[in-house]
Design brief:
The chain has about 240 residues and is of the alpha/beta class. The protein is about 30% helix and about 15% strand. It has helices at about 10-25, 40-50, 80-85, 110-120, 160-165, 185-190, 205-210, and strands spanning about 1-5, 30-35, 60-65, 65-70, 100, 130, 155, 180, 190-195, 230-235. Strand 2, helix 2 (about 40-50) and strand 3 form a beta-alpha-beta unit. The mean pLDDT is about 95. The structure holds 2-amino-2-deoxy-6-O-phosphono-alpha-D-glucopyranose.
């Protein structure tokens, strides 16, 4: 695993954007696996800046997002589709028809998941997967569990995740209790993985995930088994790692 320590969130974001920009430049028709949360916002801003300055062209890129809240429509400002549109897609020349997020409005979980698995296959897999890290070690919405879930599935969100994500909603009651998420197998099949982490609050889980035992109780720990992972973190998030 390649570990890069950045001075702060902005530098982390610039380094992560370099990484994604290199992927898009080397393979203009690449498939990017994208993530939501506060960690990638700066990275997306930096990618937008590079698109605006003519350095980057997303016209042939396909994107596949990790997850979506079950029950939220794309127009709901807390849905991950809305997040991706407003934080990235609306500001670059990606073809929206080639941007994919699980369908939160599909009530039939089996269908929603089967459709998403078929889509990932149809796209030929993911060239570069961007990941944030949940406070409990989740990636996408793969929560701590007794085993690693392989493919797209419907999850009951952990109480700590509902609590952590409540900051984006008016009240705790509004936070969805379930989500559709890409599974660990689909994430692990990505050719390259880029994890970004920032803030002292992530230091413990970063240490556990990247130097502790590989266990489904810390879903991100499986990344230790992937042949091409880069972790970019600010110094606070990496403070408990020997880099
Ligand atoms: C959510 C998302 C994850 C994300 C995590 C961490 O639960 N489903 O994909 O990585 O939050 O979010 P943040 O980057 O805001 O810490």
């Amino acid at each position: 695993m390649n570990i890069i320590k950045a001075e702060d969130y902005n530098k982390m974001s610039r380094m992560a954007a370099n990484f994604i920009a290199a992927q898009v430049t080397l393979k203009p028709d690449c498939v990017l696996g994208l993530a939501t949360g506060s960690s990638p916002v700066g990275t997306y801003q930096e990618l937008i800046r590079r698109y605006e300055s003519g350095e980057l062209d997303f016209s042939r890129v396909t994107s596949i997002n990790l997850d979506e809240y079950k029950g939220l429509s794309p127009e709901n400002d807390q849905s991950y589709r809305y997040f991706m549109n407003t934080n990235l897609f609306d500001h670059i020349n990606i073809d929206k028809a080639r941007t994919h997020v699980p369908n939160g409005l599909e009530e039939n979980a089996e269908k929603a998941c089967a459709d998403y698995n078929a889509l990932i296959e149809q796209c030929g897999g993911i060239d570069l997967q961007l990941l944030g890290l949940g406070n409990n070690g989740h990636i996408g919405f793969n929560e701590p569990d007794a085993s690693f879930a392989k493919k797209t599935h419907c999850v009951d969100l952990a109480a700590s995740t509902i609590e952590a994500n409540a900051r984006f909603f008016q009240s705790m009651d509004e936070v969805p209790r379930q989500a559709y998420t890409m599974g660990i197998q689909s994430i692990m099949q990505a050719k390259k993985i880029l994890v970004i982490v920032s803030g002292a609050g992530k230091a413990n889980i970063v240490r556990d995930a990247f130097t502790g035992p590989v266990t489904p109780q810390v879903p991100a720990s499986i990344l230790q088994m992937h042949p091409d992972v880069t972790l970019i973190g600010d110094k606070d998030a990496l403070s408990l790692l020997q880099v």
